Automatic annotation (TrEMBL):
Name of the protein in question: Major facilitator superfamily permease
Residue intervals passing through the bilayer: 44-62, 74-93, 99-121, 133-154, 160-182, 209-229, 235-257, 278-301, 361-380
Membrane-topology descriptor: Multi-pass membrane protein
Record carries keyword Cell membrane: yes
Cited InterPro entries: MFS (IPR011701), MFS_dom (IPR020846), MFS_Efflux_Transporters (IPR050189), MFS_trans_sf (IPR036259)
Length: 389
């Protein structure tokens, strides 16, 4: 087994664990947490949203640390923080411990999810990291497939507190050794200070590119998170039964994996901007098909949405690399993705209100947002050398 394959398997497995025990955790445990602690379910989701907001603040600092020291010490530390946050959450009997546990998990999310893994790969492989980034997203794309059943099984047998402790143990017994075993990257001197996104771009790409990418990722991630929370409700609002809605919704996950395979198998021959443009067009096209044909076209929408979302997850790592190069990648990536975390935190609440008011017509909003991201991608040019690109 080649060194790159081992690296992808190691990081991909660790990322699957990190996503399953944080981002995908409340879908299964939010209600039992609320019932046991006597708190409204909305309070649990509020604590989770606060964790996402904190992760947006942590991201740039974690990226800077990876730029300087490599991914091994940062990601290994996040394994310990994930375990500590989950253990603290398991002891919650009221809002204070609940929020404290989730905020600690938010710190780990800001320094231990995709952006950090991408930065670790770029630190090791430079501009050759695109294939490895795709490989990691292929593995970690199974986080919900693995995480939801495992969380549900643990909750049924040892309760939600035991489930949190079980995930904490997995971070110590599996995640920590995987991250400690990452290749060593020699420390670099600290980068010169920057003022933020507008001045963070090196001469290789114009300054506005970082802002355009930040908007594209925020818009698409808002829609991805909103649909993850409300797609079954949208499907039922369009006339499907619960069983039908769940069956159609189940198409999204395999379609995401198929999109990543498409990127790995064919689209990687092109500039990642081309892949991102193709991916961003899929959700709006799916919305138009659904609205024109009706609920019968919902499976087509689900597949198109999943394909696009799968490819765009990879673009979050490859586009900043293509435009700005590997130097300072971690910190710059942290700033570019920070608005996405904020959008992600508010997406379920805001889009849920639209679904309650408009039903399936709320898809016009999601389609418009992703269409605006697609237009922004059309505005960019693949050239890296042309300063007017």
């Amino acid at each position: 087994m080649g060194g790159n394959t081992r690296l992808v398997l190691r990081l991909g497995t660790a990322q699957t664990l990190a996503w399953a025990s944080s981002y995908y955790l409340p879908a299964i445990l939010a209600r039992p947490m609320a019932e046991d602690t006597g708190l409204p379910v909305g309070t649990v989701w509020m604590a989770f949203s606060m964790a996402l907001l904190l992760s947006a603040l942590i991201g740039p600092f974690a990226g800077r640390a990876i730029d300087r020291f490599g991914g091994r010490p940062v990601l290994a530390t996040t394994s310990l923080i994930f375990a500590s946050g989950l253990a603290l959450l398991s002891q919650a009997h009221g809002p204070v411990m609940l929020f404290a546990g989730w905020l600690l998990i938010g710190v780990a999310m800001g320094a231990g999810l995709y952006e950090a893994a991408f930065a670790a790969l770029v630190r090791l492989q430079g501009e050759a990291a695109r294939d490895a980034i795709t490989g990691i997203t292929l593995l970690a794309g199974l986080a919900s497939t693995v995480g939801w059943p495992l969380s549900g099984w643990m909750e049924a047998h040892i309760g939600w507190r035991g489930a949190c402790l079980g995930w904490a143990a997995l971070h110590l017994l599996l995640g920590l050794p995987l991250n400690i075993g990452l290749p060593h990257a020699s420390a670099l001197p600290p980068p010169r200070p920057h003022e933020g996104l507008a001045t963070d771009a090196p001469p290789r790409a114009p300054r506005h590119v970082a802002w355009v990418l930040a908007y594209v990722f925020a818009a698409t991630w808002f829609v991805s998170t909103a649909l993850a929370a409300h797609l079954p409700a949208l499907l039922m609002a369009s006339g499907l039964s619960l069983a039908g809605a769940l069956a159609v919704g189940a198409l999204v996950g395999p379609a995401q994996v198929a999109g990543r395979l498409l990127e790995f198998g064919g689209l990687r021959r092109f500039h990642p901007l081309i892949s991102a443009r193709v991916a961003a067009a899929m959700h709006p096209v799916g919305v138009l098909v659904w609205m024109a044909v009706g609920a019968a076209a919902a499976p087509v929408f689900a597949v198109l949405h999943g394909l696009g979302n799968g490819i765009l997850t990879i673009a979050k790592g490859t586009l900043p690399l293509a435009y700005f190069g590997p130097v300072g990648y971690g910190r710059r990536q942290g700033w570019i993705v920070a608005p996405s975390r904020v959008a992600q935190a508010f997406a379920p609440l805001l889009f849920g209100a639209l679904v309650e008011r408009w039903g399936a017509q709320a898809l016009w909003v999601s389609g418009g947002l992703v269409a605006s991201a697609w237009l922004c991608l059309l505005y960019l040019r693949p050239s890296l050398a042309d300063p007017a690109a």
